[in-house]
Q: What sequence folds into this?
């Protein structure tokens, strides 16, 4: 039960300090009682229902349960250190939060890239419990990652708190701009266009990009971007994809910020600011080889 809903018989026997014969006998009894299921020629076992597993866990004294989790984690760390999800979980359940941190953080970031949001949420929280004495960069990665996952799960209030915590830990203008952009996106999703615009404009300013402050300024800049788009359309060989992709991360961030700003402008400031922001981002994107930002 400590190992999870699915477990390996050999690992369970080691944890319970049983011989192979004793483990097989116990497994046969559990199968007979319809508690676990296992293939006839396989050591992989599964609890029939998770409530059965939870009942067994609840009957274990807390100290014994923690010791079993610790033994499981130490065995995994020695035998299969690549199983980061299980290592983070077992060290956390054993109360060894600092030892869980590196495994949980790797597991959380892996789950996030695979869009396993519930698992990523769980692992980021495990990492957070072990991060009290961690360095600034690690705490930033946790707060930023957890904020992203919570936003994707639609939990905007908690996502905003985590992203604001990440803002306090961010170092460098690019990292601060990324966080301001995410705060703007969160405000947009919550329907607060004024806060969204202010956050995204702060992000652009951190990256050295000024936004017009008047209707006349927006109109003049719109004409400029329109002429640039005409040039891109008539002479693509001179103006399109003329920059190399190396070191374009900052430029791509700026393009994404202009895209989000155009959405907020549409609802709050009207068509001309919206069109200016849209064309500005598109013209910048067309200077590089095809990217996801350009496709959007």
A:
């Amino acid at each position: 039960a400590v190992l999870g809903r699915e477990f390996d018989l050999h690992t369970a026997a080691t944890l319970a300090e049983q011989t192979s014969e004793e483990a097989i006998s116990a497994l046969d009894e559990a199968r007979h009682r319809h508690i676990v299921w296992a293939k006839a020629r396989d050591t992989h076992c599964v609890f029939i229902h998770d409530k059965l597993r939870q009942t067994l866990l609840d009957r274990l004294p807390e100290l014994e349960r923690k010791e079993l989790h610790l033994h499981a984690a130490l065995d995994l760390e020695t035998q299969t250190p690549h199983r980061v999800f299980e290592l983070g979980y077992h060290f956390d359940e054993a109360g060894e939060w600092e030892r869980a941190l590196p495994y949980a953080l790797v597991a959380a970031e892996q789950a996030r890239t695979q869009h396993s949001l519930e698992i990523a949420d769980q692992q980021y929280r495990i990492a957070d419990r072990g991060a009290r004495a961690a360095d600034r960069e690690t705490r930033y990665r946790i707060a930023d990652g957890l904020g992203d996952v919570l936003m994707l799960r639609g939990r905007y209030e908690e996502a905003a708190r985590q992203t604001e915590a990440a803002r306090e830990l961010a170092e460098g203008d690019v990292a601060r701009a990324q966080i301001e952009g995410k705060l703007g996106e969160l405000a947009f999703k919550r329907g607060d266009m004024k806060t969204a615009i202010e956050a995204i404009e702060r992000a652009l300013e951190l990256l050295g990009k000024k936004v017009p402050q008047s209707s006349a300024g927006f109109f003049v800049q719109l004409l400029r971007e329109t002429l640039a788009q005409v040039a891109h359309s008539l002479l693509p060989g001179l103006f399109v994809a003329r920059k190399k992709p190396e070191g374009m991360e900052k430029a791509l961030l700026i393009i994404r910020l202009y895209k989000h700003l155009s959405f907020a402008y549409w609802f709050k400031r009207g068509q001309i600011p919206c069109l200016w922001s849209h064309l500005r981002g598109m013209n910048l994107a067309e200077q590089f080889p095809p990217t996801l930002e350009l496709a959007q």
In short: The radius of gyration is 26 Å. The longest strand covers residues 44-47.
